[in-house]
Amino acid sequence: MQSVPKSEETRSLIVGTAMRLFTENGYDRTTMRAIAAEAGVSVGNAYYYFSSKEQLIQGFYDQMQRDHQERCIDLLSGEPAFEERLKRVLFAWLDVAQPYHRFGTQFFVNAADPESPLSPFSEDSTAARVASIGLMDEVIGGSDVKIDPELREELPELLWLFQMGVVLFWVHDRSAAQKRTRMLIGRTVPLIAKLVGLSRLRVLRPVSREVTSLIKDLARPEPA
User: Fold this and answer.
1) 3-class DSSP state for residue 112?
2) Whole-prediction pTM
3) CA–CA gap between residue 11 and residue 59 (Å, rounded)
4) CA trace torsion 133, 173, 107, 156 (10° rounding)
5) What pLDDT is recorded for position 1?
6) What is the mean pLDDT of residues 38-67?
7) Which domains does the chain have, with CATH numbers?
8) For 148-186, what is each residue's pLDDT tens digit?
9) At how many degrees (to 10) do helices 6-25 and 101-111 cross?
10) Nearest alpha carbon to residue 22 among 72, 74, 69, 57
């Protein structure tokens, strides 16, 4: 087994410690000094890896994305049904994120600010965003679903945007073990799968292509 570099161990330790303290004490009341002390590293060492608490949150995003992807490897293996693959990926995200639900509202307040580097649409979040969209591409590519070619190109990002909606619902879900979020996934994913399957029908192609055209226009950068 390949050993984990010491630097990566330290980085993961600081991120894990920070998330625990954020959950226990709140984001605003937790200082970098407190994180360093609890992790057993010097303040300078903590700042070496993360220049701010915002960067720590970004490190958490990245780590959670890696954990999610690793969990999905076995879940997707040998499963050809698009609907089931998408459900498994979304349920796996809930499982990975569940320990942080109590901190979720505070955690995502910053992420909801479009000017914040913690926004999932920000440049700082590019790595996590690209990895998440790539996972959705894998959900589609490893399935036996037949899709209109133009929709296929845009579908991974559309599914990621759907996931962001699920995350927002999860943040505000106060049901036991977030059962309502699981119900949301269980009942909306079959609808998405039906719509995706119908996209290849000739009669619905104009609608499908209008949707993809809209997504492309919205994603296009504003002229300087």
Assistant:
1) coil
2) 0.85
3) 9
4) 10
5) 45
6) 90
7) 1-51 (1.10.10.60), 60-219 (1.10.357.10)
8) 888 888 899 999 999 999 998 998 899 999 999 999 999
9) 100
10) 57
